[in-house]
Amino acid sequence: MNDEIRRSVAALCARFPGTYWQDLDARRAYPTDFVAALTQAGYLAALIPEIYGGAGLGLGAAAAILEEVHKSGGNGAACHAQLYTMGTLLRHGNTAQKDAYLPAIARGELRLQAFGVTEPDAGSDTSSIATRATRSGDVYIVNGRKLWTSRAGHSDLMLLLARTTPKERVAKRTDGLSVFLVDLRRAQGVTIAPVPTMINHATCEVVFEDVAVPAANLIGEEGKGFCHILDGMNAERILIAAECLGDARWFIAKASQYAKDRVVFGRPIGQNQGVQFPIARAFAATEAAALMVAQAAALFDANGACGPEANMAKLLASEASWAAADTCLQTHGGFGFATAFDVERKFRETRLYQVAPISTNLILAYLAEHVLGLPRSY
User: Fold this and answer.
1) Which residues are designated catalytic?
2) Which regions of the chain carry the CATH code 1.10.540.10?
3) Where are the beta strands (DSSP E) in the chain?
4) pTM flag (> 0.90)
5) Quick one: which of 134, 184, 192, 200 has the fewest CB in 10 Å?
6) What is the pLDDT of residues 185-225, one digit of tens each?
């Protein structure tokens, strides 16, 4: 099944060559046509159950889709949230919510592309978010700010994490957080401002000023939102890891081909072990990371605990992609900095995954504490 998906996605991506992405990058524009093509082909509804009009596939299939997008030279950041947010909505949303939104998402009439978690003063410390949602009759009144909320300006719906009980009144610091499905088309008091960055990621700051969100849009149980979004976060890490694999394989193929074709001092540069070995090492690291990504996705699809595996998949794949990116740029020399080769663009894009979602150091701290039993460091 996944091999067939890969072939189909590759064929679709062939319609969007490097020049398409170069133009978007230069203008910092959203890939509207590409997202529309993925939507029309049904790939963004891959995880939505068939009864709601989706494909009913597992996370492994979604990972194959995004890996292939990146392996083709494209970038799935414009649309991947519609896949990983399903981890929270499908597992914790109620029947009425699924009936109301999933069919329209599957048909491409609605976009669920925004995940409002990070804040200016909270960062990776999710338990310290300050955005408040206060119950008032049949609505919650939301006030606060979110930062690095990518695609908010191109999304109809947002999954929002907000504090419903003050931190000083909860027994456990991750308690008192709740998840809401916010309809950005109708919400009054929401301000979305683009944040310029080194990559074309459509990221934004989102400000909520007395925004009324229907109580019916509360996902799962009030106060248990942190546990609910973990499903989305694990899915996100696994899917981002798959994108990193795609990047790494693109860099390795690009570097290998250039090393065969580029002749210096009367011989292909790929004949030199100083050029060969870094590419070969990047290849080995990528294949090893791919095994962890596959294991994490399989555990997620089996509804098993997959926190360590999802984190290790993201760690290993992001490091493999960054090593491959550096090797590819070094192999190309000066040509690696030319926009026409796409290397510099994807070099910038894949660097993000050392930082987000969740930084490399926080993954190591998680593994040290929760897997190895070492003392808590933060």
Assistant:
1) 236
2) 2-107
3) 112-116, 132-136, 139-147, 157-163, 177-183, 190-194, 204-214, 218-219, 263-264, 267-268
4) yes
5) 134
6) 999 999 999 999 999 999 999 999 999 999 999 999 999 99
CATH 1.20.140.10 location in the chain: 227-371
Question: Which one has a higher pLDDT value, 125 or 22?
Answer: 22
The hierarchical CATH code for the domain 227-371 is 1.20.140.10
Query: With contact defined as beta carbons under 8 Å apart, do 133 and 178 qualify?
Result: yes
CA distance 285 to 289: 6
CATH, domain 112-223, list 2.40.110.10, 2.30.29.30, 3.90.1180.10, 3.30.70.1050: 2.40.110.10
d(CA 117, CA 114) in angstroms, rounded, equals 9
Backbone angles phi, psi at 218, to 5 degrees: -70, 125
Identity of residue 283: F
How does residue 372 score in pLDDT terms, banded at 50, 70 and 90?
very high
Domain at 2-107, CATH from 2.60.40.10, 1.10.630.10, 1.10.540.10, 1.20.120.1220: 1.10.540.10
What digits encode the pLDDT tens for the residues 239-288?
A: 999 999 999 999 999 999 999 999 999 999 999 999 999 999 999 999 99
